[in-house]
Amino acid sequence: MGIGNIGLPGLLLIAVVVLVLFGRGKISGLMGEVGKGITSFKKGINEGQQELEQEASDAAKDVTPEDEKDKV
Questions:
Q1: CB 27 within 8 A of CB 18
Q2: Element (H, E) at 44
Q3: Radius of gyration in angstroms for the set of CA atoms belonging to the chain, rounded to a whole number
Q4: Residues 19 and 27: beta-carbon distance below 8 Å
């Protein structure tokens, strides 16, 4: 009998206890904050990927040999 063997009745009991302890309002507020955090995290990931793609495309555009760069 470990934590990995909770099952559906155990999860329902835990959910009821949490609901009784914290109330519906606090739980919905907490879930709203979790949702905002996930959205913010995804937005940050997408912005980071766009930055990396932009840097890669900028590096690919500059094909001037190194010795030519020094002359300019």
A1: yes
A2: helix 7-61
A3: 26
A4: yes
Both tokens of residue 66? Answer: 């190194």
Nearest alpha carbon to residue 27 among 39, 35, 41: 35
Which DSSP category does 3 fall into?
A: G
Give Cα separations from 61 to 6, 50, 53 (angstroms).
57, 16, 12
In one-letter notation, the amino acid at residue 52 is: L
pTM of the entire structure? Answer: 0.52
Type of residue found at 44: G
pLDDT tens digits, one per residue of 15-53: 899 888 888 888 888 889 999 999 999 999 999 999 999
**Pairwise CA distance, residues 8 & 4, whole Å:** 12
